[in-house]
Amino acid sequence: MKTISYKGKLGDQGIDTIPLHTIKGKIGYKIIKFQTMPVTPGNATQESVMKIYSVRQTSADATVDFTDATLLAAALYKQEANASQTAQGNEIIFDNEMFNQDIYITHFDAATGESMNYYIELEQMALSDLEATMATLKDIRAIES
């Protein structure tokens, strides 16, 4: 199995596309690592939510709904700018789901509109014709619903 990684930076309410699709869809991926880090750690109060979706997103928000079948991963980062505050956290949850199409990352900072860095590692695997068809059909169904 091959591992590939992507990194980037999103401003408040930003959306990035990670292009993974192929013509035949015979390469599958699973998220094996998803990390976030503020652009200016400790500099400002920040309550950032980053999410990874299997379908294109038109807006970014702070709502995390684990019943959404298109949500592949979610990360919450919280920090206080005040040095006397020690409560900081970074919670990350991702699904062990295989996909073969592009993924979309959103960022929303509910506090002060700060930017956020992300790092994603994906496990890459070859798919049979049946697996590729099933993964593509699953994505089509998610888009339609």
Which features does this protein show?
three-stranded antiparallel beta sheet, 11% helix, five-stranded antiparallel beta sheet, Jelly Rolls, 145 residues, mainly beta, elongated
Care to describe what's here?
The protein is mainly beta and 145 residues long. The protein is 11% helix and 46% strand. The strands form two sheets. It has a five-stranded antiparallel beta sheet with strand order 2-7-4-5-6, with no helix packed on it. It has a three-stranded antiparallel beta sheet with strand order 1-8-3, with no helix packed on it.
Main sheet record: 5 strands, antiparallel
Number of domains: 1
Order of adjacent strands in the largest pleated sheet: 2-7-4-5-6
Q: Compute the separation of the termini in Å.
A: 32 Å
| Main CATH class | Mainly Beta
Q: How does the overall form come out from the CA principal axes? A: elongated
Q: How much helix is in the residues?
A: 10-25%
Uncertain segments are none
Mean pLDDT: 87
List the helices and strands and how they pair.
Elements: E1 2-10, E2 15-18, E3 27-38, E4 46-53, E5 71-79, E6 89-94, E7 103-109, E8 116-126, H1 129-144
In short:
The protein is mainly beta and 145 residues long.
